């Protein structure tokens, strides 16, 4: 598990694969992992129950993998197969030489967000000599890059920023025209101006929020607290302002409809004051 899943890096237990036990980093004592025993010392080292539950899920998957390996017999005719294995996160079956194994990404590998709704698959390559592909450090390697959703989220984020930018660039000339010509200084255009202004402010704050908070969140590696995780006053004010101007856009749309309704129901009544519209809209 990542080091930042624990309260402190020095409190993280070490797993000794040779003996199948956990080592307490302080006392150096060895103990077996007991995911069902909530009084186990390892549970006090996790930052929250969320990470503890991920560890429990991973332990259960490992035990299930052991049972599966023992229950499925090895075919003697396929001696050139890459052997079934547990890579630390999930189980991999016997795979023929030169083929690529696909296994659905397990839920317990998502440490910072919920698993994606659509299934994604990790891949593990079996070489032509019947051994799993290894890294430069001579360790078996599994490709989990396809499990991540950051790339798709980042593309969606850029698309949102660009579309809001296009919207703002179209609204500003309209506002300039509304404020420039005296013939347009009428109540109906005043409501238009406020609606357009709220849309501009909404777009500006959405762009600022997405570039400073969401963009940083997608680039975060987890070892340092980012702007969102710090939860400072600036982040809170920016978030509230973003939601506020989104609501004002809807309220000014309501004011547009309300004003049109009044024109229809009271055609010959002059609208002397817009105070009620400003109170509703803003």
UniProtKB/TrEMBL annotation:
TM helices/strands, residue ranges: 157-179, 191-209
Membrane topology, from the record: Multi-pass membrane protein
Domain G-protein coupled receptors family 2 profile: 64-151, 156-282
Superkingdom of this protein's organism: Eukaryota
Any one Pfam family match given in the protein's UniProt record, by short name: HRM
Gene: LOC111088548
Organism: Limulus polyphemus
Family of the protein in this entry: Belongs to the G-protein coupled receptor 2 family.
Principal localisation: membrane
Protein name: Calcitonin gene-related peptide type 1 receptor-like
Coiled-coil annotated spans: none
Entry's localization field: Cell membrane
Protein's UniProt keywords contain Kinase: no
Alphabetized UniProt keyword annotations: Cell membrane, G-protein coupled receptor, Glycoprotein, Membrane, Receptor, Transducer, Transmembrane, Transmembrane helix
Organism classification: Eukaryota, Metazoa, Ecdysozoa, Arthropoda, Chelicerata
């Amino acid at each position: 598990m990542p080091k930042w899943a624990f309260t402190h890096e020095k409190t993280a237990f070490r797993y000794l694969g040779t003996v199948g036990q956990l080592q307490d980093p302080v006392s150096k004592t060895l103990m077996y992992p007991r995911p069902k025993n909530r009084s186990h010392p390892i549970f006090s080292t996790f930052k929250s129950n969320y990470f503890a539950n991920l560890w429990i899920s991973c332990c259960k998957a490992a035990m299930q993998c052991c049972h599966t390996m023992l229950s499925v017999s090895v075919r003697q005719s396929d001696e050139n197969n890459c052997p079934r294995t547990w890579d630390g996160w999930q189980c991999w079956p016997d795979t023929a030489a030169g083929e690529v194994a696909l296994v659905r990404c397990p839920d317990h590998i998502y440490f910072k967000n919920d698993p994606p709704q659509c299934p994604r698959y990790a891949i593990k390559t079996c070489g032509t000599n019947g051994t799993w592909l290894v890294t430069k450090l001579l360790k078996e390697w599994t490709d989990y890059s396809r499990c991540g959703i950051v790339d798709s989220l980042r593309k969606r984020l850029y698309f949102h920023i660009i579309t809001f930018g296009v919207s703002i660039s179209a609204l500003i000339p309209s506002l300039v025209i509304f404020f420039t010509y005296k013939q347009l200084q009428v109540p109906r255009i005043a409501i238009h101006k406020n609606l357009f202004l709220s849309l501009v402010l909404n777009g500006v704050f959405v762009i600022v929020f997405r570039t400073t908070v969401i963009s940083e969140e997608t680039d975060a590696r987890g070892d340092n607290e980012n702007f969102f995780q710090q939860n400072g006053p600036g982040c809170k004010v920016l978030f509230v302002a973003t939601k506020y101007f989104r609501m004002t856009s809807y309220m000014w749309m309501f004011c547009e409809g309300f004003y049109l309704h009044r024109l229809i129901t009271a055609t010959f009544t002059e609208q002397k004051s817009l105070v009620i519209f400003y109170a509703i809209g803003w």
